[in-house]
Specification:
The protein is an all-alpha fold. The chain contains seven helices and no strands.
C-alpha cells in the first residue's frame, strides 16, 4: 500500500511539475510553438485539480507518516504539498467556503513556478528511480 501511495506522489510530482514549468522548459530548450512539452501540458490541464489533490493528499500522508515514525522529512513530501496547494487552490477554496489561498498569494509565488516545477519533475523522477530512497 505504501508503495502505491509513493508512486502516486511521484507521478503527481512529475505531472504537476510539468504543468508549472511548461514555459520554463520551452524557453530553456528553445522549443518552437509545436512541441511535445506543450502538447503534454495541454492534455494534463483538465486534470490539474486532480493532480493537485493527489499531490497534496499523498504529500500530507507521507509527512504525517514520517513525523509519527520519528523519521526525517523528505523533499518529495514538501514539494507535493506546496504543488497541491498551487494546482488545486480553486477546489480548496470552494470546499472551505472562503478564500484560503488568495490570488495575491499565488501572484507572489508565480515567478518561482518554473523553478519549482523543474524541482518537482526531478523529485518525481528521483522517487521513481529510488523508490525507498
Amino acid at each position: 500500500m505504501k508503495n502505491i501511495i509513493a508512486l502516486i506522489l511521484d507521478l503527481a510530482n512529475i505531472a504537476g511539475g510539468l504543468l508549472l514549468a511548461q514555459e520554463t522548459i520551452i524557453q530553456l530548450f528553445k522549443l518552437g510553438a509545436k512541441n511535445p512539452i506543450r502538447a503534454i501540458a495541454e492534455s494534463l490541464q483538465p486534470l490539474k485539480i486532480y493532480i493537485g489533490l493527489a499531490a497534496l493528499g499523498t504529500g500530507l500522508y507521507w509527512l504525517l507518516f514520517h513525523i509519527f515514525k520519528g523519521q526525517s522529512i523528505w523533499l518529495f513530501e514538501i514539494i507535493g504539498i506546496v504543488m497541491g496547494l498551487i494546482l488545486a487552490n480553486n477546489k480548496i477554496n470552494e470546499k472551505a467556503g472562503r478564500e484560503l489561498i488568495t490570488q495575491q498569494h499565488l501572484d507572489k509565488v508565480q515567478p518561482f513556478y518554473g523553478i519549482f516545477g523543474l524541482i518537482a519533475i526531478a523529485a518525481g523522477i528521483y522517487g521513481l528511480i529510488l523508490p525507498n530512497g
